[in-house]
Amino acid sequence: MEYSSYSNFGGMMESILIVSENYEKLKKLLKDYRTERACSEEEALSKVSSNKFDLVLIEDNVGLMDKIKEKYNVVGVLILEDGDFDKSKDYYYVFKPYKEQQLLSIIHNSLNKVKLERELRNATEFMRNIMDSSLDSIITADLQGKITSFNKGAESILGYKAEEMIGKNVEELYPPEEREKRERWITRILNGESIRNKRVRWIDKHGNLHDISLSISLLRDSDGNPIGTVGIGKDITKEVMAERQLQEYIFQIREYIKQVERSNMFKELLLDILKHDILNPLTVIKNVAHTIEKEKSELIIRNVGKIEDIIKRASIYSKLESVEEFEFEQMDLAEVIEEAVDSLRNLSKKKEIEIEIVKGKKSYNAEVSPWIEEAFINLISNAIEYSPAKSKVKIIFEEDETSIKIGVADLGYGIPDEEKPYIFERFGKGKKSKGMGLGLAIVKRIVELHKGNVWVETNKPRGSIFYIRVPKRQGEA
Questions:
Q1: What is the DSSP string of 93-145?
Q2: C-alpha 261 chain-centroid distance
Q3: What does the alpha-carbon distance between residue 333 and residue 348 come to, in Å, rounded to a whole number?
């Protein structure tokens, strides 16, 4: 077998330090390697300490090789006179007289072994870095369940250090009632099945239970024989807790529905609100909670906010349904509008929407109830919600001798003409006005109790204008 080139070790020519009186002969033989000479033991030890040589080739000096191998992790090859030699030592050797091809073969094979060992170390280190950078728990165990590795993700979730757990049985992480699960799963993966995203609970160092989404795979040796398992566990404790809380909330809502059905109080209205406007968002939340991820948290917050808003509006509407007339007082509607706008400042800032108030004079006095502010809050908040970001909502004052008219104009998608007659009805929501129904029903009820009018027009070229007209004096309505 011929070896013509050995200079492809990690993309660089391999370096050999030669300690021999026959340096020139060996240099010529090893022309495909980078060679360097050491003329004494001291020089050899000094050069090896630089850690730049892949192999040391020494002729007739076992003692020097012993010194080098004692201190440095470098491949050693000895050229010796045939005689007594401790062949158990960790060097390669060739006896004189040797064939050049024999020496080349030994050097090539020894360097190739080093290369493979280095690649194995690099691969092992690479895998260790991957394991330690994972936020999930990665635990390996042998077929008897003894833990063989325990990554930093597992340390973070369970509170143990790796050295505390290696050698212990992985079953110690499971509460007694969960251990049978793992036994069944191990049997299944040994039979060729896969275990993916199974729910299980683990116990941490302090006795706390963690909900885990666990996947288990079989580890095999180079011959394909099973040697152990690797389990990857994601801590879903917070998600499971949120799911349980939401299920409890849904149960409470359903119980409340039953109570309302039994009492017959506000039956038609509240049953519609609870069944459609509350349970639908809760169902969305529940479904998200099953597969929750961080990026979905905003969806949960948004739906919970929607529930709170619906409950608040339902409460307001039920109160208004029981009121036959308001008590009125002189109020400046310009001030009422300013207060309504101030209460919605955070909402408008979030969407970077400018609110412009257009009025011809400082004040607009009328006999109204404090409830009138709730009507304006509903109209202005709808205008903000359905307007594009960084746009404008305009509030316009007009008056005549007997009444004051206030318009709230947005730049949203607008409302089709065929839907306009129905949008102020609780049960008459259209596609474009979806979600406005209860708020606009509140506006209509408040305005009716003021003996006024509310309607919507198209805001050309884009959007809608909602108008409220109330009498200046209630006796003149």
A1: EEEES--HHHHHHHHHHHHHHHHHHHHHHHHHHHHHHHHHH-SSEEEEEETT-
A2: 42
A3: 21
CATH number of 134-235: 3.30.450.20
Residues in the chain: 477
Residues linked to residue 465 through DSSP beta bridges, in sequence order: 409, 457
DSSP lists the bridge partners of residue 457 as 465
Q: Which fold has domain 329-476?
A: Heat Shock Protein 90 (3.30.565)
The owner of tokens 């795979």 is 217
Other beta carbons within 10 Å of 87: 7
Q: How far is CA 196 from CA 104, 217, 458, 464, in A?
A: 52, 9, 55, 52
Peptide bond into 97 cis (omega under 30): yes
d(CA 375, CA 379): 6
The proportion of the chain whose per-residue pLDDT surpasses 90, expressed as a percent, equals 39
Could you read off the pLDDT of 205-231 as tens digits, one per residue? 999 999 999 999 998 887 888 999 999
- Return the residue matching tokens 């190739």: 112
Long-range contacts of 363-366 (CB under 8 A, 24+ apart): 363/332, 363/334, 363/335, 364/332, 364/333, 364/334, 364/397, 364/399, 364/404, 365/330, 365/331, 365/332, 365/333, 365/472, 366/330, 366/331, 366/333, 366/404, 366/470, 366/471, 366/472, 366/473
Pairing of strands 392-399, 403-409: antiparallel
- Residue type present at position 448: E
Other Cβ atoms within 10 Å of 450 Cβ, number: 25
Instruction: Give the pLDDT band of residue 434 (cuts 50, 70, 90).
Output: very low
Q: Are 466 and 453 in contact (CB under 8 A)?
A: no
- C-alpha 419/C-alpha 429 separation (Å) is 8
| For the chain, domain boundaries | 15-126, 134-235, 239-321, 329-476
